Amino acid sequence: MSSRGVLVALASAAVLTSCDWYEKNTVQEISGPVPAGARIKFFNFGVGSPGVNFYAGNRKMTATLSATGGESPNGVTYGNAGDGGFYIAIAAGQHTLSGKIADTAAAVHDLAISNVTATLAEDKAYTFYQSGIYDSVTKTVDAFVVEDNFVPQIDYTVAYVRFVHAISNTNPLTLYATKTAPPDSGVVFPIGAVVAYKGAGAFTALAGGVYNLGVRYTDSTTNKVSRTGVSFLAGRIYTVGARGDITITSTTATNRPILDNTANR
Questions:
Q1: Is residue 15 left, alpha or beta, with left meaning phi > 0 and alpha meaning psi from -120 to 50?
Q2: Which DSSP category does 153 fall into?
Q3: Same structural domain, 25 and 143
Q4: Phi and psi (nearest 5°) for 23?
Q5: pLDDT one digit per residue (tens) for the chain, 265 residues
Q6: Measured between alpha carbons, how far is 110 from 51 in angstroms, rounded to an integer?
Q7: In this structure, are 31 and 138 located in the same domain?
Q8: Which of 17, 95, 174, 176 is the most buried (most CB within 10 A)?
Q9: SS3 state at 7
């Protein structure tokens, strides 16, 4: 075999090995027809939670790569999404969804620290949130599932934004977006209605642009959590999620309250 042939063969073997690992450990979003069933994505918003792999029953839905190309024992760490934030295909029906400790060196490896039983419908999308504050004694943390109820007919001249409340130690909140540039500079737009913990608001149309965001209690005009300079592009769909510990006042602490902005589409 020529040297060029050897290189091609080695490259092909590497690709096949990589694909085999991914097929065993996670399902990646690819172009082409959407598989039958439902779709789901996963977030670890549980403050103080160890890194986890997310499961549906005994099926591992997410895993992370190490620098050496094997599976990382870190799993999905706090503040991050499984599978890069992509939706994962899953059969429609009832599932027990869990976050299980990823660290292979830990005595509690594969211990489920969060569990939600949910019925997922055909052709619908969902998001699983590991949320609240991790209890290191009981090794448990909250979790919930919301349907990603997209607008049936998208107007590509506007963006769509919704709010998800994942902070366990705070009151119901409303998300507000303040435009930073003309037109409508300085105008404050409410994004949906008030949302309680473990709840999700409706996707709300908003002109594309840059906004300052804030969430407030229903009886207040003061932001409890804020974030500046967030871009929403027309034709895209976004979820703003509140996570963290509302009692933390530090502006740099990992567990401080934060507004996370993620594109659904």
A1: alpha
A2: S
A3: yes
A4: -65, -35
A5: 443 343 333 333 333 333 343 344 444 443 445 567 999 999 999 999 999 999 999 999 998 888 888 888 899 999 999 998 999 999 999 999 999 999 999 999 999 999 999 999 999 999 999 999 999 999 999 999 999 999 889 999 999 999 999 999 999 999 999 999 999 999 999 999 999 999 999 999 999 999 999 999 998 999 999 999 999 999 999 999 999 999 999 999 999 999 999 999 8
A6: 11
A7: yes
A8: 95
A9: helix
10 in a domain, yes or no? no
Render pLDDT for 47-90 as a digit per residue (tens, 0 to 9).
999 999 999 999 999 988 888 888 888 999 999 999 989 999 99
Domain presence at residue 12: no
Q: Quick one: DSSP state of residue 76?
A: B
Long-range contacts of 64-71 (CB under 8 A, 24+ apart): 64/102, 69/18, 69/21, 70/21, 71/21, 71/25
> Token pair for residue 107?
């005595």
Residue ranges making up the domain that contains 118: 20-147
Q: What is the value of pTM for the model shown? A: 0.85
Same domain, 27 and 135: yes
Structure tokens at 146: 């919301």
- CA-based angle 82:84:87, to the nearest 5? 75
Whole-angstrom Cα distance, residue 46 to residue 216? Answer: 21
Convert the pLDDT of each residue in 139-152 to its tens digit: 999 999 999 999 88
Domain count, the chain: 2
- Residues 130, 25 share a domain: yes
Taking the C-alpha atoms of residue 128 and residue 216, their distance in angstroms, rounded to an integer, is 24
Note whether 238 and 263 are within 8 A (CB): yes
* Distance of alpha carbon 248 from alpha carbon 48, whole angstroms: 13
Residue 243: enclosing H or E segment and its boundaries? Answer: strand 237-243
Q: Is residue 251 part of a domain?
A: yes
